[in-house]
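User: Hi! Is it possible to get a structure for several chains at once, not just one? Here's what I have:
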Amino acid sequence: MQQSESTHSTETAGVQSAQEAPGGEIIRFDKVVKRYGSNVVLNELDFSVAPGERVTLIGPSGSGKTTILRLLMTLEDIDGGVIWVNGEPLSHMRRGDKLVKANEAHLRSVRKNIGMVFQQFNLFPNMSVRKNITEGPVHSLGVSKDEANQRAEELLDLVGLNEKIDAHPTQLSGGQQQRVAIARALAMRPQILLLDEVTSALDPELVAGVLDVLRNIAQTTDITMLCVTHEMSFARDVSHRVLMFDAGQVAEEGPPEQIFGDPQEERTKSFLKAVLEHG
Amino acid sequence: MEFFLNRFPLYLDGALITLLMTVLGSAVAFVLAMVIGILGTLRNPVARAVATVYTEAFRGVAALILLFWFAYAVPQITPYQLSPMFAGVLALGLNVGAYGAEVVRAAINAVPRAQTEATIALNMSWARRMWLVVLPQAWAQMLPTFGNLIIELMKASAIVSLIGVADLTQVAEEQRSSSGETVLAFGSALVMYFVIAQVLIFGMRLLERRANRRLGRAPAGGGLLDLLRPPTPGTKVGAAK
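Assistant: Yes, the chains can be modeled jointly so their relative placement is included. Here is the combined structure:
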């Protein structure tokens, strides 16, 4: 296991010009490049997200959707360009008028505004549901244990699992584990919530429960959400905007009614056709 | 039987020294294994180099030679004369610690990367991440091998008799010399070593069971007799779906 949570390639660590941070945007990708070996996953990607906006990322496997979320969560190194979050560079920090590789303190400072729910839940098997939800706020945000416990109970109410607060993750179904994972992410009071194919690992009968929870969160909070999903009806219901990705670039974007009802690009049409046929 | 019963207090004294050597040597080995093992998982090249040098150096040296080095060579090149007990604890701890470090490193590396990613998503510091999530999960994987290493250390502690520590082997040798009963003298020591090993195995299995239960793996209930059988990690409690 690698211990350093985000290391940066030499190329990325190189000094870059510190341009003015964009305004009116909570997230901005500025010519972002990400490679895995010789495979270019994100190719000078530009896009931005407004505060409170809910954006769904769709596209074929390998188009870079999950990589975008992982870069935002600083789980991957960036190979070029700059990601801005709240007007601050994410993987870089300012030194004078330059941008240099971010250190751990900077990463933690920017990352505190971002939460993520993973495809495979990633609950901690050595902790109860309560501990899974409270450890982050207590140790990362400095919240008191009492406050964290109260918040955990509120969030478990929200996801309909209050009776499971002292259960062990292995005693829960996949759908229940994912709902706990959502509560855990929300416990950090993120401004930005990243959802990475959160229903892909679930049995079909468990998907609806998780999606209902997310619909409720979308309707009752102003959290900015970036969602990678193949659940097109969910994307249509909750998204303000849908981005269709192909080969590391935005192939098409627009409101869900347009993307799902009247796509303009052939690539979008063929992708949606394939998804609907298999869905 | 009469031979053993008559000399039981002597054998018991020797066994206690052996047990003491085992506990102290294991403590030194455990601390070294944890520190060096964690260093070995870091990306920092200096930390990794320190871990590699220690592990390779002390794995590659016979514990007996290390013991003689501390007992006889160190006083010649330094102003310090180590007590035989201390020299024994140091030699055993350094030697077994090198094997333990590899166990720790492998166990940490075996914790799924996804678990670390979840801690990053919760913005935990490296120290919190290790303490709260990675080490508790790695601990369950370390314990079976740690159990073997402790038994090995306990048996290897017999070498301290060669520098005059009155451990179980030393007692057995003295009884053989004084009585001429080679079979009974060493047979009694065999039994005592076996009993000590069983106590250690029992203790380690208790720890294993506890660690696995914390990960939701240990079978519910289970009496003390179950501890005589190897645990079956991977058995999950409750419904998974």
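Chain A touches chain B at residues 1-7, 73-75, 104, 108, 111-112, 114-116, 118, 120, 122-127, 135-136, 139-141, 167-174, 184-185, 188, 203 (CB under 8 Å). The radius of gyration of chain A is 19 Å.

User: Great, thank you!
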